[in-house]
């Protein structure tokens, strides 16, 4: 009698645990799916958006590249969000000519070639406009009343192609049950938020779309308004490594992109906005993933060296030349020794003075720790690494301060698996969390 072989199932692993088990850099995978007790262990994981429930993932072919219906265009007049949108449900403020319409989103998938940056920006503008409406407390009551009048609105928003799907037994039970109106409205808002967030992600992750810094900043603003940071680490990785489509190629072909180039570094302003979004949403995996795929990349290090290291390097190269010119001029002001000897003495003195003073300044700047709160450099870390990776340390310090106790006298008493994993992750980065001699009352 044959014995059935055990089925090996993949296990979700968070960014911190993955970094602790392997020194290779990888993209953060949120723990939302792993911590969901309602998901059966035997359920296979599909490559879908990480923040949308499985019941709401009836995506259209126009939004998901590579699907079996991917060749079918989105019907005209229907955007990615479907025929009924928030703009149509707000009876109190009907959409005008200047208001964005969801039909702009379909231009990304219906364009036979490479969508222009303006088309993608318009699509993200629709999502940003909807996100603003969804998060505006003055508009929410009117929108909730309009949604309540039409039961088809929420169901239409559940499918990206505007087609209604069959209701599951769980949804039928939920609708038939007598829940408070506040809970029903909250569920509707969650569905709408997820739909707008997913639409923005699918628009930017389309294979034909070239992610520019302006589009990335616009996308981060959309997710910041919605409070959905789960996809930000993945989008940061796509910005650096997504293959570039070739202009004029039929069918569209792609060229590999070097993620380590300085031009693929993400601006600090965008990173800080994304990090604030993850902290506000209390998503530790997303926060660590944002830091790992922005400040922790080789592209950011090279970009910082080019932006902030060229001036000191230029001063280091030109200082001997300027010192020699000054020494030559000073040698003509004396008559006690010959000109060559006087030039050599003056040149040596000028270089010694400038070099000694500059060394003191460099050491003072690179060893300053007044800006450090809970995350400091481990003893023995080279000064060059401290300067190059200061943004990464500051971001991890910000995360530690947000997840730990706010009272200074309680800091260091945190417990839990997440906190222990964060402490070990910071330790592997050459840093120390809550260094004893730097804590309050320990000096």
TrEMBL record:
Keywords assigned by UniProt, alphabetized: Membrane, Transmembrane, Transmembrane helix
Domain of life according to the entry: Eukaryota
Biased composition (Low complexity): 93-103, 150-161
Chain residue ranges for the region called Disordered: 55-119, 139-181
Transmembrane parts of this sequence: 310-330, 342-365
Record field: compositional bias (Polar residues): 104-113, 170-179
Name the record gives this protein: Uncharacterized protein
Species of origin: Xylaria grammica
